[in-house]
Amino acid sequence: MSVEFEGDTKELAEKTLVLTEENNRILKSMRRSARVGLVFRVFYWIVISLIAIGGFYYVQPYMDQIMKSYSNIKATETKLSNFPPSWTDVKNYFVGGTSTKEVK
Fold it and tell me: Residues 5-16: pLDDT tens digits?
C-alpha cells in the first residue's frame, strides 16, 4: 500500500517517518534502560540484605558475650546493694555482731 504525496506534503511525510523511527528507537532504549535498572536495583537490595544478615551472624557471638557481661554486672550491683551501708554495719557484718539492717 503506497500513498503518493505531492511537493511539501511528501517532504513533510518523510520527515515525520524519520522522526517516528527515531522516537521508536529512543523509546525502546528507555524501556531497555528501565529493565536493566530494575534488575540492578533488585540485585543491590539482595546484596544489602545478605550483608545485613551476614553481619548479624558475625556480630551475634560478641553481642551474647556483652549481654552476659551486663548480666554479671547487674548481679554484682544487686549483691552490693544488699551490702551493709555504714562502717559499723560492715564491722558487724564480718564480725557477726548485731546490725541495724537485716542482712539477707
Answer: 566 888 899 999
